[in-house]
Amino acid sequence: MTTLKALKLIVATTAIIALAGCSTMKDKMSKAKMMDAAPAADIVDTAVAAGSFNTLVAAVQAAGLVDTLKGEGPFTVFAPTDEAFAALPAGTVESLLEPANKDKLAAILTYHVIPGKVMSGDIAGKTMDATTVNGQTIAINATDGVMINNATVTSADIDTSNGVIHVIDTVLLPQ
Question: Where do the domains of the chain lie?
């Protein structure tokens, strides 16, 4: 079993256990209602529960960033979907998940995070640069939809207890 498959299995198992616990709640709120409720889950737990960020979560684990993204924050995370990771050249994700590439993986992942909580309404109609946690800048264009460098924000303002997630369709690669 490859490292990627093993990590995906761990993430999927964790998500199933988490969702199974949700079904025992007295009010039996649906997953969708839980996501609309006041944000009780942090960035990592929200990503796991969403089910479309398995590769991102596996990468965050491999890079040793789970505790950071479960921390106080606030953080704004531009979260690539599993499909965005699948669009990378063959073997890229598997290579990045190798322990020898932990620093490179961490640099890529922290390029997807800016300090503070930036909601879409805060940037609507504007273009700007923002400094990411890894120290490099990203270009934000919110004049017609929202673009982060060459990535399109496909879903915005997923509120979490320690920040916000904006879903993007492309993995951002630092220079």
Answer: 3-168
pTM across the whole model: 0.78
C-alpha distance from residue 106 to each of 48, 58, 85, 89, 155 (Å)? 19, 12, 15, 19, 24
Tens-place pLDDT, residues 22-63: 333 323 333 343 345 455 799 999 999 998 999 999 999 999
Q: Tokens 């699948």 appear where?
A: 86
Q: Evaluate whether the domain defined by 3-168 bears CATH number 3.30.1780.10.
A: no
Spatial separation of the C-alpha atoms in residues 17 and 103, rounded to whole Å = 30
pLDDT at 4: 37
Inter-CA distances, 32 with 12, 19, 49, Å: 18, 12, 10
Q: pLDDT tens across 110-122, in order?
A: 999 999 999 999 9
Q: Which two tokens stand for residue 71?
A: 């921390």
